[in-house]
């Protein structure tokens, strides 16, 4: 673990806003979203694998966590950024990191984060009948208006 | 004197398994029901591969927005008369997922909108034991 | 008068077919250490199917879709009338064996036509598999038929085959007969669509295959046709190899035993084998089975 963090520090220096090592196998590194692509590219070159991207809507903004797994060292390093609401945007990694493709589409659907230059920005998870622009995992989501609660009368058959 | 087709329906219910994105525990229990240990062929129950051959739909999982139009289509393709069995808590009442953003509602609410004359039977449990599923099917057929 | 015999024969074939179908399911259940369905199960199945609505898909060709099961059922009825009518009343005509074999192939063709008319890609897959299987198993079956006729003196009449066997002993008791019996048994397994040769109707893979779009009375007709074939093909085997069926006195019990001696191996093979892929089936029938059948034909030519 320390070798990975040391390499990250020597590469990015002061651009790492905060490094927390929770236990010998788990570390969280906070960055600004402009520095995140560089850090991700470095970790990928260092031998890491993007396991997944997760997100949570907090009081201060939408926090995105990029989890990188390092198989030989058996450690996991997570890069965190905080994106300001109401229109959180960040650069997309999917152009050069295929593992990020679906995770970014999912986060866009559920949390409303826009990933600039995503190669395939289609809807991934939500149903076709779900209205555009409503993101269910946001803190202020209180449910759709009742006529949209997917009644069978409004059900659209999938195209043959 | 019972109509021969009604007698036939009670004595030979062919089953089609409809899994509407469940957690699959109910599906595992349904699979167990169809093994030789529980021998449902005594009741004439046979698993069929196409909904058009089915008399009983074993529905597991709670209905969500994605699956709703497909389930409507599948129900229309099942030859009537047929009985729809809501197997497991998710189909009965959406269980703990009731307030989720993607859930439409329990099976019987959806069935009332698709086809008010539908016959719906309930097999509670999470998941229901194979014996419970058999008991539910037999009781429903007796009440037809 | 003839109409009366026709209906009686069809009724007998239907009842025997349903009984054989029940025997099949009961023996399967006993092999799997369970109880199995009650004796009236096939009747309940048909009664239920006749009471359900018949769904005709929008993308299907309705005429072909609806008429295919009727054509198959009609062919099976006429074949039953020829076979059983002859066994009951003794009326026969020259070449009735050929007509019988031809009519027994029509239900498979009607299933293919019905499946192709269904407008469902899954049915078309089932239809193509059924076509391949039809081409595969008919070849050794026909060679075996020619072998039995050859041995019996060259006349294509069922009554002549039976008479020859009554006079000179069962076909089964000769070397070519044994080979022919084995090949014919396996071919009949394929003709009836029983595992290991039930690829066209694979439930788990292709949703019922040829019959995926059928429901209600049309499905009932297909199943009745299958049950009639399940009765007629063992009877044909008995006639070709086991000396025919005499229905007088103690011979009735003997005939039942002969019938069971053909049906029970079919059921046991069905329960102990996995399903073969359709290319394995064609390779099996055009390879070892055809070679075996030709060997039987050669032995028959040498009067062995």
Describe the structure.
The complex is a heterotrimer of chains A (160), B (144) and C (304). The longest helix of chain A is centred in the middle third of the chain and has 12 residues. In chain A, the strands form two sheets. A five-stranded mixed β-sheet of chain A has the order 1-2-5-4-3. With 160 residues, chain A is α/β, with parallel strands linked by helices. Chain A is 21% helix and 29% strand. Chain B has 144 residues and is of the alpha/beta class. Chain B is 38% helix and 19% strand. Chain B has a five-stranded parallel β-sheet, with helices on both faces. In chain B, helix 2 crosses helix 6. In chain B, 51% of the residues are buried. Chain C is built from eleven helices and no strands. The mean pLDDT of chain C is 88. Classes of the chains: A alpha/beta (160), B alpha/beta (144), C mainly alpha (304).
Summary?
The complex is a heterotrimer of chains A (160), B (144) and C (304). Chain A is of the alpha/beta class. Chain A has one domain (2-144): Beta Polymerase, domain 2 (2-Layer Sandwich), CATH 3.30.460.80.
How many angstroms separate the termini of chain A?
53 Å
Largest sheet descriptor of chain A: 5 strands, mixed
Strand content of chain A: 25-35%
Content-based structural category of chain B: alpha/beta
User: What strand order characterises the main sheet of chain A?
Assistant: 1-2-5-4-3
Helical content band of chain B: 25-40%
- The name of the CATH architecture of chain B is 3-Layer(aba) Sandwich
User: Alpha-carbon distance between the termini of chain B?
Assistant: 14 Å
Produce the secondary structure layout.
The complex is a heterotrimer of chains A (160), B (144) and C (304).
Chain A: H1 2-12, E1 18-23, E2 26-30, H2 36-45, E3 49-58, E4 61-70, E5 75-83, E6 89-91, H3 100-111, E7 114-116
Parallel strand pairs in A: 2-5, 6-7
Antiparallel strand pairs in A: 1-2, 3-4, 4-5
Helix pairs in contact in A: 1-2
Chain B: H1 4-11, E1 14-19, H2 25-33, E2 46-47, E3 56-60, E4 63-64, H3 67-77, E5 83-87, H4 89-93, E6 103-105, H5 107-114, E7 119-123, H6 130-142
Parallel strand pairs in B: 1-2, 1-3, 3-5, 5-7
Antiparallel strand pairs in B: 4-6
Helix pairs in contact in B: 2-6
Chain C: H1 2-31, H2 41-50, H3 62-89, H4 96-116, H5 121-151, H6 158-168, H7 175-191, H8 203-206, H9 216-241, H10 251-271, H11 278-301
């Amino acid at each position: 673990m320390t070798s990975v963090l040391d390499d990250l520090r020597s590469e990015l220096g002061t651009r790492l806003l905060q490094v927390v090592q929770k236990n010998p196998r788990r570390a969280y590194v906070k960055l600004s979203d402009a520095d995140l692509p560089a850090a991700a590219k470095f970790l990928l070159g260092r031998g890491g694998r993007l396991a997944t991207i997760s997100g949570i809507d907090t009081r201060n903004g939408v926090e995105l966590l990029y989890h990188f797994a390092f198989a030989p060292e058996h450690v996991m390093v997570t890069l965190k950024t905080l994106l300001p609401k109401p229109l959180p945007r960040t650069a997309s990694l999917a152009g050069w990191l295929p593992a990020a493709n679906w995770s970014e589409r999912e986060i866009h659907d559920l949390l409303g984060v826009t990933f600039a230059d995503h190669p395939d920005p289609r809807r991934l998870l939500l149903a076709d009948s779900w209205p555009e622009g409503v993101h269910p995992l946001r803190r202020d989501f209180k449910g759709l208006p009742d006529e949209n609660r997917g009644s069978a009368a409004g059900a659209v058959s999938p195209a043959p | 004197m019972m109509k021969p087709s009604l007698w036939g329906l009670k004595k030979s219910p062919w089953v089609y398994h409809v899994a509407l994105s469940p957690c699959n525990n109910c599906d595992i229990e349904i699979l167990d029901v169809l093994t030789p240990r529980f021998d449902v062929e005594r009741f004439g129950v046979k698993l069929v591969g196409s909904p058009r051959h089915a008399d009983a739909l074993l529905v597991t999982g709670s209905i969500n927005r994605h699956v709703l139009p497909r389930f409507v289509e599948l129900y229309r393709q099942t030859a009537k008369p047929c009985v729809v069995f809501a197997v497991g808590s998710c189909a009965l009442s959406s269980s703990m997922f009731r307030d989720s953003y993607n859930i439409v509602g329990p099976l019987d609410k959806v069935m009332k909108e698709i086809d008010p004359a539908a016959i719906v039977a309930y097999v509670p449990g999470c998941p229901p034991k194979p014996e419970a599923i058999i008991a539910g099917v037999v009781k429903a057929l007796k009440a037809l | 008068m003839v109409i009366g015999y026709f209906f009686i024969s069809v009724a007998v074939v239907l009842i025997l077919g349903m009984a054989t179908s029940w025997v099949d399911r009961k023996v399967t259940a006993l092999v799997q250490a369970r109880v199995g369905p009650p004796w009236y199960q096939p009747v309940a199945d048909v009664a239920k199917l006749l009471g359900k609505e018949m769904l005709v898909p929008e993308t299907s060709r309705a005429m072909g879709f609806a008429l295919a099961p009727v054509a198959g059922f009609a062919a099976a009825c006429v074949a039953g009338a020829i076979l059983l009518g002859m066994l009951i009343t003794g009326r026969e005509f020259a070449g009735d064996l050929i007509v019988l074999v031809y009519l027994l192939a029509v239900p498979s063709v009607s299933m293919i036509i019905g499946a192709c008319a269904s407008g469902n890609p899954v049915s078309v897959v089932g239809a193509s598999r059924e076509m391949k299987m039809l081409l595969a198993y008919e070849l050794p079956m026909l060679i075996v038929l020619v072998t039995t006729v050859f041995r019996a003196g060259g006349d294509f009449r069922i009554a002549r085959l039976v008479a020859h066997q009554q006079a000179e002993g069962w076909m089964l008791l000769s070397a070519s007969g044994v080979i022919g019996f084995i090949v014919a048994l396996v071919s009949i397994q394929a003709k009836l669509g029983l595992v290991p040769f039930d690829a066209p109707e694979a439930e788990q893979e292709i949703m019922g295959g040829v019959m995926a779009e059928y429901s209600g009375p049309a499905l009932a007709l297909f199943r009745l046709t299958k049950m009639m074939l399940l009765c007629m093909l063992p009877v044909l085997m008995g006639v070709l190899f086991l000396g025919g069926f005499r229905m007088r006195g103690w011979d009735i019990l003997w005939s039942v035993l002969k019938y069971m001696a053909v049906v029970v191996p079919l059921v046991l093979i069905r329960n102990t084998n996995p399903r073969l892929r359709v290319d394995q089936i064609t390779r099996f029938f055009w390879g070892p089975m055809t070679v075996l059948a030709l060997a039987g034909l050669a032995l028959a030519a040498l009067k062995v």
